[in-house]
Amino acid sequence: MRNASLLTIICLLVAALSCTGVDPADEEVVGEQAVNLLPLRERVAITEGWWQWRKANVLPMIMREQGVDLWIVRDDEADKYYNNEGPVFSSLVPADLRGMIYDSQYGDARPRFLIFHDTGESIEYIEPRDYAHISELVAGLDPKTIAISQFNNEPMLAALGQYASRAVDSWTLCLRWYETVSPEMIERYRDVVALANEIIAEGFSSKVVTPNVTTTDDLNWWFREKMLDLGIEHENHPSISVQRSLADIAKYDDPMEHVVGARTRNDIDVIIRPGDVLRVDTDVFMLGLVTDTHQYGYVLREGESEVPAELVDALNTANAIQDQFAAEFKLGRTGKEIVAASEALIFPDNLAGRPTNDFHPPPKYMLRFVRDGWMLSTKTAVVGMTSGPTYAPTSIVTNDHELHHNTLYAFEPHIDVYIDGWGEQGLELGHGQIIAFTEDGFQFLNRAPDWHVID
């Protein structure tokens, strides 16, 4: 299967390069990760294997951590989210190893309710028929603590009856279930990030960018086509923006009046010029994992053979500040506490404003498929601890949540470095990348800290 997949990918690349007029003999396949992409069937089997591991390991851990004996999940808890059924319900519904969910035992449809009961030895899954059946089950199990959603829960409270006083909010339980990943998922994430790095390295090169000809929109669509050719999904349309020195803004007749400082908005199509700093915000969506990557490239001027020293120094400064921020991720701290500790740090003098330690959980796709391959929902979900106050109502995130082991974050510090000739706002250099927090601490997953160079 691996060799067949490799042959298919190479054929797709050759066809795509032929259409663009580029001689395939002059091109190389993106990199090691691209040529080793798994077939879709194997991808689904891997993600379902992760679900089985999480059900056996994460579910009992978090229920006991939260002191919950019984967790009841409804399929209509989701009005506060953007997914039809809600990410938590969809990620918990039982399925086979192809990702196909099992029909309800009470009819030809998916289950409406999920109950997880801690027997003390394991977590027992029970599918109730309806609210009346929930009343019977709860009375028989006599749990001390029952976790339920606090949203639109009047029918559930009525069904619990005298046991309603034992109900607690399932919010934190939902966060812990969705945010906790296996060690294997983290290692696979390294490969997914490496794949994103390979694609960006090719996009930010002379293979793709011809200065004074290629536009930012050309580059946006190149990334989309590249992912399509490789059989890779994406979460969002790529975003390319330009930062340009004040002298070059005056030199070129480009629509740079539509800028913040010296940075183009994402929707402005600008010809890429020598001396430009390019920024890409894009993602690779593989195995249910989304990369959410921000990287930078520099377009060499005539006579230059390397990135100017002042830009190298600026990026080194930004990387050092990221390392300072990384050290503030400590077990048990809330998002608010991490941000507060970061704001108290001492920074270099060559900054155009105070840097900010911005982070959020990366989008993850942990949903299942119904009969004939239809998905329960088509979106990913962002669930867990964040630096900001909230992303509600579209996600389950909060900066009051604590940092736990085996969790993932899109680490996106905002850093502006002052460079003479680039304006008072400075040069924005905030590399964005996926990080993991484990028992070994803060880990960059295939960090790409350097400039991409376009000659």
Give the helix/strand layout.
Layout lengths: L1 H18 L12 H4 L4 H26 L4 E5 L12 H6 L20 E6 L4 E4 L4 H11 L4 E3 L5 H7 L6 E3 L1 H9 L3 H21 L12 H15 L8 E5 L2 H6 L7 E2 L2 E2 L12 E6 L2 E2 L2 E2 L2 E7 L9 H18 L8 H9 L15 E2 L22 E3 L10 E3 L8 E5 L4 E2 L9 E2 L4 E6 L2 E4 L7 E3 L1
Parallel strand pairs: 1-4, 4-5, 12-21, 14-15
Antiparallel strand pairs: 1-2, 2-3, 6-9, 7-8, 9-12, 10-11, 13-16, 16-19, 17-18, 19-20
Helix pairs in contact: 1-9, 5-6
Can you put this structure into words, describing what you see?
By secondary structure, the chain is α+β, with helices and mostly antiparallel strands. The chain folds into 3 domains: 2-30, no CATH class; 41-178, Creatine Amidinohydrolase, Chain A, domain 1 (3-Layer(aba) Sandwich), CATH 3.40.350; 182-454, Creatine Amidinohydrolase (Alpha-Beta Complex). Helices cover 33% and strands 17% of the residues. A 5-stranded mixed beta sheet has the order 3-2-1-4-5. A 4-stranded mixed beta sheet has the order 6-9-12-21. The chain has a 4-stranded antiparallel beta sheet with strand order 13-16-19-20, covered by helices on one side. A hairpin with a 4-residue loop joins strand 2 and strand 3. Helix 1 (2-19) packs antiparallel against helix 9 (216-230) and helix 5 crosses helix 6 (154-160). The protein starts with a helix and ends with a strand.
